[in-house]
Amino acid sequence: MNRIDADNKDLYAIADLAKEFGISTRAIRFYESKGLIAPERVGATRVFRRRDRARLILILRGKRLGFSLRDISDYLSLYDADRNQQVNLLAEKVDERIALLERQRDDLETTISELREIKNLADQRVQKAS
């Protein structure tokens, strides 16, 4: 990975982070605008530290797991706070997410079952008409 300064392994350019995580620089700037990450600036250049990179990992993981930016923001706001609070919030949000996904799975199974029933009825009518 190309870092801004080869002597300082804690600094990353926005393009390097975008490439590493397979996202656009625009996405990173969006997370910055939402206050989820706060890179330093050297002139007009954003300089990301190891902490920003770690937060970006958490943001992307949260999004991949289906958490809202609000949930991710709440979690990150406790990043430097009491670890117990952070773990409790995480457990609560994970429970909520699991419950939602289970409801969605049940809805999908019901829909699939209904569609199969409709398909069988349609097939039977086609056979009778033949």
TrEMBL record:
InterPro entries: DNA-bd_dom_put_sf (IPR009061), MerR-type_HTH_dom (IPR000551), MerR_fam (IPR047057), Tscrpt_reg_MerR_DNA-bd (IPR015358)
The protein's name: HTH-type transcriptional regulator CueR
Pfam families: MerR, MerR-DNA-bind
Entries under PROSITE patterns matching the protein: HTH_MERR_2
Keyword annotations from UniProtKB, A to Z: Coiled coil, DNA-binding, Transcription, Transcription regulation
Coiled-coil positions: 84-125
Classification via SUPFAM superfamilies: Putative DNA-binding domain (SSF46955)
Gene name of this polypeptide: cueR
Species in which this protein is naturally found: Devosia equisanguinis
